[in-house]
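== Folding the chain ==

***
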Amino acid sequence: MPPVPADPGPDPVEGPAREAGRLSGPLFRDEQPRTAVPGAAETVVLRAITDDVAPTPGHGGQPPHPGAPAYPAPPQSHAAAGRPHPVPSFPPGQETPVAQPDPQPQPRKQRGGRNLQAAIGVGVGLGAVIIASLFVVKALFLVVVMAAVSVGVWELTSRLSERKEIKAPLIPLVAGGIAMIATGYWSGVQWAAASLALTGLAVMVWRMAEPPENYLRDITAGIFTAFYVPFLATFVALMLAADDGPQRIVLFLIVTVCSDTGAYAVGYKFGRTKLAPTISPGKTREGLAGGVGLSMLAGALLMQLIIDGGSWWQGLILGGCAAVVATLGDLGESMIKRDLGIKDMGTLLPGHGGIMDRLDSLLPTAPVVWLLLAAFVGS
């Protein structure tokens, strides 16, 4: 065995240098004595002081291994200079404070993630189109309804296909929807119901051209779409067919819009109790009460002023029923969208989403308003 050299003992030169390296010098090699952080003025980075930490090889002027270049010796410490070392004290368990940059201000979002300016502009534009078509030529408003229904059917069937791979036939649904609205306006509710039945048969036959897998699922979705969008919209055409049809449409639209507006305003200011948190977390019971109240007020005024033979108390009933049904319709479409995993049915209307996102409360309200008007003042 090779002889083991005797321990030479402590180096009289290396000892003080090693002690100085232990008492002074940064904790990390890239540590700076003071760091200016952008956006955090007058902030000083405090360094933790550790005692009795042995220097790593390569510190204190010693090379890490023979033949490697020596590192520069650490600066002279307070202890080596004969001055007491200032040691900052922190409460037990508190970490050394480190300056953090100020967070950048985030742009404020509109409530619900909507662009409010775009939503108002689109709403005013749609209102102008509706009023102009209603009071110029009644049949022109019927074309507007047919176009909205066709786009709504396309949005719903497209989302079903994208999210659930449900292939509801689009062509027979659009053709059948137009037929329902036209026959309802010119021939009455019986012909509209017959058009719905024929549309269901057309959906079944059309789907036979594809493989039988998921046939029942696809035709069920198709029949649901035919009922949900064009058949419910047919009651708008039935209201329009009356002698005072434009006035009835105005009443129907305003009480529905007032329901939504009152619920939004009151819920935003006073809403505390959630109405249906698992379906639509933004809706509150206070908002529902505000929507019902505003819709009843609008119904009472309009029923008295613009409907022949109408009374204010009839408007109260009509407005209250319309507000409740409009809310249920909104919740129903929210259920559909949650099942599909989407926020909006489309992107056609900036600030609103798609056509179906505007028809969600109008569609189920139409048959209720038509029925109450027929009961109060006749059809």
DSSP finds eleven helices and two strands in the chain. Residues 243-379 form one domain. The longest strand covers residues 280-284.
